[in-house]
UniProtKB/TrEMBL annotation:
A cellular component annotation (GO) from this entry: cytosol
Swiss-Prot/TrEMBL keywords: Carboxypeptidase, Hydrolase, Metal-binding, Metalloprotease, Protease, Zinc
Entry's localization field: Cytoplasm, Cytosol
Coarse class of the protein's main subcellular location: cytoplasm
Needed co-factor(s): Zn(2+)
Region: Disordered, residue numbers: 265-308
GO BP term, pick one: proteolysis
Name of the protein this chain belongs to: CBPC4 carboxypeptidase
Biased composition (Basic and acidic residues): 265-275
Length: 670
C-alpha cells in the first residue's frame, strides 16, 4: 500500500500506462506477453487503493486499456493480458447506486405490534457511496471464465464420528407439552365405524357435479380464521367415495363430493347444494369484498389491449383447452386464485399458471458455455461508460411509478409482473434490443434478490434480445455452469404446445459496478451487486412470453392441485385429511396434509396397526424463490396417493404429515 501511494505521488502510474502502450504497439508477434502482463500487474496493485483508482481514471487509463484489449479477444495466447486488463477495468469502473429511488422493497406490510411500516428515506442508496471504498481494499480476482470460488473455511461441519450423528433416545421437551399437537393428529382418534356405503348412495355421489372444488376437510379454526375466512367452503368427511384413480388416469375430475356421516338427500337437498356450489365462486367477494377480487386473465397476443375477465372471451379460450394436462384444471385454478391475499392485491392472472403446462418433450442437457462470453459482457458494460452514444437509458416499466394509461414506446418491449409470484420491479431500455432489469426485494426488506418472473410482449421475430438482471446478490450462480432461465410462449400454448422450456444463450453471471451498503447486503455480502445476463430469440412475432428463474409454482397452483388430488384418489384405500396449520400474516391458509392407508378393517387389531404407524414429516418451500422444491413435493404427493404398489406399501407402513408450502406469503408476493 505504501509503495502504491509513492508510485501515485511520483507520477509513476502515467509512466506505466505509456510503457504498456509502447510494448503493446511494438510487440506485434506477442513474444513478450509476460513483460506486458508485468506492467499490468503493477497497475493492478496501484489501483487497489482509492487514490490509485482516481489517478487511473484521470490519466484515461480506462480508455487506454479498453482500446488495447480489443485486439486480443480472439487470441487465447493473450488470455493472461486480457484477464488482467478486465480485472483492472472492472475494479476502476466508477461505482454507482442502483437506478432506484430507494432500494427497499416496493411492498410494505405492517407486522403485528408495529403501528406502521416506516418508509425508507429517499435516495438512501446513493448517499452511502461516498467514502465507502476504503484504502487497501483488495479484491480476490478469479479468472473471469472460471468463477469457481474456493472456500477457505475448514470442513468443521463434516462429522466423522457416526455415533455423534445418531438421534438421542430422549424427548427434546417435556412429554406433557406434546399434547398441544393432538389437533394436528386427528387420525389417531378417527372413528372408522362406517367404512362402506350403500351402492345407491355411491352412485348418487358420483353423479353429482359442481363447478368448484370443495373445502379442505376438518379445518382447524383459529381466532383469525373465524373472523377472516378466505372462502366459504363446505365441510367434508375423510371417508367420502369416488372413482378409482387408476380408471381416470388422474385427469382433473368433473365431480366433487360432499358428505356428512351418511349420504342422504332428496331432490330439494340436491337443488340446494347445486345452488351453494354456484355461489361458492362469489362467496369471498360477497362476504369479504376487501379480501376477494375479480381476476382478469392477461390478454393473449390476438387480444392485446383487452382485459379478459370471467366472460365469454375466457370461455372461448377455455374451449381450446384440451384438458390433457395432468392434475391441472383452469377452473379450479381461478377458483383458488380469487381467494388469495397479496400485498399489491393482484388483479391479473398470468397465462401460464391459468392455462397449465405439459412436460417438455425431451430432456435438455446443460448449456455449453461459449469461450470468453463473460469477459465480452463485462467489456460491453464498460463500453457503456466510454462510448455512451448508443445508450438509450429509458425506463419502460416501473413498479414504483406505474403508468397504466401509457400506450408504450413503439418498437420497445412491454413488461408486466403484477400477478401471483411475479417479480420484476423495473425495466430500463439500454439499447434497442437490450434491457436492464431490477428485481424487487423481499417484503419490508432491501435485500434477497433471486427470483424473477415477468411477462414480455410486442417482440420482433429473429431478433436477439439481451436481458441484464443487475441486482443479484450471490457470489456465484448455476447460470455460470449451464443453467438457463425458463420461457413460456402463449402462442405456442394456444397452438397445443403449452410448455415451459429452457431458453437463452450467452448466459453468464458476474460482479457489476453497482454498489450497496454493507448493511443492505448483510455485512460482507453487501459489497457489490451481480449481473445475470442472457439473450433470447423469441419464437413468434408479437407473442406474449413469460420468463422466470425456474418453473413457477404458485400458491394457487398448489391449492388447486390439492383439490384435484383429494377428489382423484381412491378413498377406500387412501386416507387423506387436509387441515389448516395456521393463517399466515397475510391471511392465507397454510395447509397440513395427512396421507396414509385406510385400515384394512374395523377390527381392533387393524385399528391398532393404523394408530401405531410411524410418522414421516415432509415440508417444502420455506424459501419461496426455490420453486423446484414445490415440483418435487408435487410429484411426491401424486405418488403417495397413486395405485403404485410401493406407494400402497408406504401408506400401510407410515402416516405422512406434509406441509407442502411453508412460506405461502413469500410465494404469493414473488
Amino acid at each position: 500500500e505504501s509503495n502504491s501511494r509513492r508510485a501515485v505521488s511520483r507520477g509513476y502510474l502515467g509512466e506505466l500506462l505509456r510503457l504498456y502502450q509502447d510494448w503493446h504497439h511494438n510487440d506485434v508477434s506477442n513474444n513478450y506477453i509476460y513483460i506486458r502482463r508485468g506492467l499490468l500487474l503493477c497497475l493492478k496493485h496501484i489501483t487497489n487503493i482509492q487514490l490509485g483508482r482516481e489517478t487511473f481514471l484521470d490519466s484515461h487509463g480506462m480508455e487506454i486499456l479498453f482500446t488495447s484489449v480489443q485486439d486480443g479477444l480472439c487470441c487465447k495466447n493473450l488470455d493472461p493480458i486480457t484477464t488482467t486488463v478486465i480485472q483492472i477495468l472492472r475494479k476502476c469502473y466508477p461505482k454507482e447506486s442502483l437506478p432506484l429511488r430507494r432500494v427497499t422493497s416496493s411492498y410494505c406490510f405492517p407486522l403485528p405490534g408495529n403501528a406502521k411500516v416506516e418508509p425508507p428515506c429517499e435516495g438512501s442508496e446513493s448517499k452511502c457511496l461516498k467514502g465507502d471504498e476504503s484504502d487497501g481494499e483488495e479484491e480476490v480476482e478469479k479468472c473471469l471464465d472460471n468463477e469457481d470460488v474456493e472456500s477457505k473455511d475448514e470442513d468443521y461441519d463434516l462429522e466423522t464420528d457416526v455415533n455423534k450423528l445418531r438421534s438421542q433416545p430422549v424427548l427434546d421437551r417435556p412429554e406433557e407439552e406434546l399434547g398441544q399437537y393432538e389437533a394436528m393428529c386427528p387420525e389417531l382418534s378417527q372413528n372408522f365405524q362406517v367404512l362402506e356405503f350403500e351402492s345407491e348412495e355411491e352412485k348418487c355421489l358420483e353423479n353429482r357435479t359442481e363447478s368448484l372444488p370443495s373445502t379442505p376437510s376438518h379445518f382447524i379454526p383459529s381466532a383469525a380464521s373465524v373472523r377472516h375466512s378466505n372462502c366459504k367452503w363446505r365441510n367434508q368427511s375423510v371417508t367420502e367415495t369416488g372413482p378409482d384413480p387408476g380408471k381416470n388416469n388422474f385427469k382433473a375430475p368433473l365431480q366433487c363430493w360432499t358428505k356428512e356421516e351418511k349420504c342422504r338427500w332428496d331432490q330439494n337437498d340436491e337443488k340446494r347444494d347445486n345452488e351453494e356450489a354456484a355461489q361458492d365462486a362469489d362467496s369471498c367477494e360477497e362476504e369479504h369484498p376487501t379480501r376477494s377480487h375479480v381476476l382478469a386473465l392477461r390478454p393473449p397476443p390476438e387480444d392485446a389491449g383487452e382485459r379478459l375477465e370471467s366472460s365469454d372471451l375466457v370461455t372461448k379460450l377455455l374451449e381450446k383447452h384440451q384438458g390433457d394436462i395432468p392434475f391441472h384444471s383452469p377452473h379450479f385454478y381461478m377458483a383458488r386464485a380469487k381467494c388469495v391475499k397479496s400485498i399489491p392485491s393482484y388483479k391479473d392472472l398470468a397465462f401460464p399458471d391459468f392455462w397449465g403446462h405439459q412436460t417438455p418433450p425431451h430432456s435438455k442437457p446443460l448449456l455449453e458455455r461459449n469461450y470468453g462470453v463473460q469477459r465480452d459482457k463485462v467489456l460491453d458494460d464498460i463500453r457503456r461508460l466510454l462510448q455512451p452514444g448508443d445508450v438509450i437509458g429509458r425506463t419502460v416499466f416501473d413498479l414504483d411509478e406505474p403508468s397504466p394509461s401509457s400506450p408504450g414506446v413503439p418498437g420497445c418491449l412491454k413488461f408486466f409482473s403484477q400477478f401471483e409470484s411475479g417479480n420484476l420491479r423495473k425495466a430500463i431500455q439500454v439499447r434497442e434490443f437490450e434491457y436492464d432489469l431490477i428485481m424487487n426485494a423481499d417484503v419490508n426488506s432491501n435485500q434477497h434478490h433471486q427470483w424473477f418472473y415477468f411477462e414480455v410482449r410486442e417482440m420482433k421475430l429473429a431478433v436477439s434480445y439481451r436481458f441484464n438482471i443487475i441486482n443479484c446478490e450471490k457470489f456465484n450462480s448455476q447460470f455460470n455452469y449451464g443453467m438457463q432461465p425458463v420461457m413460456y410462449s402463449v402462442k405456442e400454448a394456444l397452438q397445443g404446445r403449452p410448455r415451459w422450456l429452457r431458453a437463452g444463450h450467452d448466459i453468464c453471471y458476474y460482479k457489476n459496478h453497482y454498489r450497496c451498503r454493507a448493511a443492505t447486503g448483510g455485512g460482507m455480502r453487501g459489497k457489490f451487486y451481480y449481473t445475470l445476463t442472457f439473450s433470447i430469440k423469441f419464437p413468434h412475432k408479437d407473442d406474449v412470453c413469460y420468463l422466470a428463474y425456474h418453473y413457477p409454482y404458485t400458491y394457487s397452483t398448489m391449492m388447486s392441485h390439492l383439490d384435484i388430488l383429494e377428489h382423484s384418489r381412491n378413498p377406500k384405500k387412501v386416507y387423506w385429511r387436509q387441515q389448516t396449520l395456521c393463517q399466515t400474516l397475510g391471511g392465507n391458509g397454510c395447509p397440513l396434509l395427512t396421507i396414509t392407508a385406510m385400515p384394512e378393517s374395523k377390527t381392533g387389531e387393524d385399528l391398532e396397526q393404523f394408530s401405531s404407524r410411524p410418522y414421516v414429516f415432509l415440508t417444502a418451500r420455506v424459501h419461496p424463490g426455490e420453486s423446484n422444491a414445490s415440483w418435487v413435493m408435487k410429484g411426491t404427493l401424486e405418488f403417495l396417493v397413486s395405485t403404485d404398489p410401493i406407494a400402497d406399501l408406504l401408506r400401510k407402513c407410515f402416516i405422512f404429515k406434509i406441509i407442502p408450502m411453508l412460506n405461502p406469503d413469500g410465494v404469493i408476493n414473488g
